[in-house]
Amino acid sequence: MAAITLDSVETLLVDLPTIRAHQLAMAVMQRQTMVIVRVRGSDGIEGIGEATTIGGLAYGEESPEGMKLAIDTYLAPALIGEDPTNINAAMRRLDKIARGNRCAKSALETALLDAQGKRLGVPVSTLLGGAVRSSLPVLWTLASGDTARDIDEAQALLEARRHNTFKLKVGRRAVADDVRHVAEIKRALGDRARVTVDVNQAWNEADAAVAIAKLEDAGVDLIEQPIARDNRAGMARLAARFVVPIMADEAVCTPEDALELARLGAADVLALKIAKSGGLTGVARVAAVGDAAGMALYGGTMLEGSVGSIASAHAFCALPTMAWGTELFGPLLLKDDIVTTPPTFTDFVMHVPPGPGLGIVLDEEKLAFYRRKD
Ligand code: MUC
Ligand code: MG
Questions:
Q1: How would residue 287 be classed by pLDDT, with cut points 50, 70 and 90?
Q2: Residue 227 CA, distance from chain mean position
Q3: Is the CB of 304 under 6 A from ligand 1?
Q4: Which of 1, 168, 254, 263 is least crowded, fewest Cβ atoms below 10 Å from its Cβ?
């Protein structure tokens, strides 16, 4: 049999509207932009992947437009003509020719894994060593910007048994207003729901100390990235000072980041994201460091659509520990989808498709409609 080579890599920018404005400390999202990648081998097998970030350049160093350019100009040419079945070799080649660019690399690794899963007739999680769970708890983020509306949203989702943990986005308003907002929501939901907050680096250490003390009293379960990602010493002081766990998000991308956070005692929990870690195998390496250091793990999202969320789900299903569940609700935040069978969410969990590869198929009509034309 002739050796298989990678014949083509196609990238598309896709813009999907959100169901409501999603307000984060650094951006208000009315839509999500994803880079959809399609790879095709000489055996005719195709794989798909997604690279996504939040708020253009507001969250990380890569923008969707920049990811497309990096893939088209640098990353894809390094893979074309090479063996698409050896994913470790492909990723090593990418790491040699391009520093960083982890969101873009994640989309390519996802697409190679999807194709290889289809080739072998097994799910991506099997390629990663095997799933140890087939469903994942998924929380919902309350981020309408309005306390009463957030409470109504949470009550309805609890009632529908879709989510029983809610993450509140804070950091846009004055600290006292944020604390009041969170405490009011926690009071309304009581013991029926867990409440976490994500500050997206917006507070300084002194504000964080005041706010976390009050949030702890209000019954909040987890504090995500309260201060600047580079202020690891400050995170260590907060982690030592409070009982409520401190989670690193923006502060942890690579295994080296995880190691340094562990060394400093700067986080109790790590938010894992395939996009931050350069793909599914990269996220497993970060998780291994977290595990070894006794840090708890959480399955994070870059608010990906169905392709990226399901790719993340395959990676998270294969991890030995996942103490804090996940936030893979991205497809539910979007008004429409570009896959024929979006993932299902019932009884507070996401069900991971069992089919080969990612287990999903692109909806060509929707893709043609939502793809950026210029
Ligand atoms: C983040 O920083 O965690 C994840 C959920 C959400 O609402 O925003 C993201 C980004
Ligand atoms: Mg976060």
A1: very high
A2: 20
A3: no
A4: 1
At residue 357, what are phi and psi to the nearest 5 degrees? 65, -135
Q: What is the pLDDT of residues 8-45, one digit of tens each?
A: 999 999 999 999 999 998 999 999 999 999 999 999 99
| 117 C-alpha to ligand 1 centroid (Å) | 29
Minimum-distance ligand 1 atom for the alpha carbon of 200? 2
Nearest to 75 by CA among 127, 6, 14, 128: 6
- Pocket test of ligand 1: the residue of 303, 328, 333 to mutate, having most ligand atoms within 8 Å of its CB, is 303
CATH class for domain 6-121+363-370?
Answer: alpha beta
CA distance linking residue 293 with residue 31, whole number of Å: 37
Please report which ligand is nearest the Cα atom of 143: 1
pLDDT over threshold 90, residue 58 = yes
Domain segments of the chain: what residues?
6-121+363-370, 127-351
Closest CA to 244 of 190, 194, 171: 194
What pLDDT, in 10s, does the model give residues 215-274?
Answer: 999 999 999 999 999 999 999 999 999 999 999 999 999 999 999 999 999 999 999 999
- For the Cβ of 277 lying below 6 angstroms from any atom of ligand 1, the answer is no
pLDDT in tens, 78-96: 999 999 999 999 999 999 9
What spacing in Å lies between the alpha carbon of 86 and ligand 1's midpoint? 32
Query: How many CB atoms neighbour CB 206 within 10 A?
Result: 11
Phi, psi of 319 (to 5 degrees): -80, 140
User: Is residue 126 packed enough to be buried (19+ CB in 10 Å), middle (13-18) or exposed (0-12)?
Assistant: middle
Q: Which ligand has an atom closest to residue 302 CA?
A: 1
Q: Could you tell me the CATH superfamily of domain 127-351?
A: Enolase-like C-terminal domain (3.20.20.120)
User: What is the spatial order of strands in the sheet that 6-23 belongs to?
Assistant: 6-23, 28-41, 46-52
CA of 302 to the centre of ligand 1 (A): 6
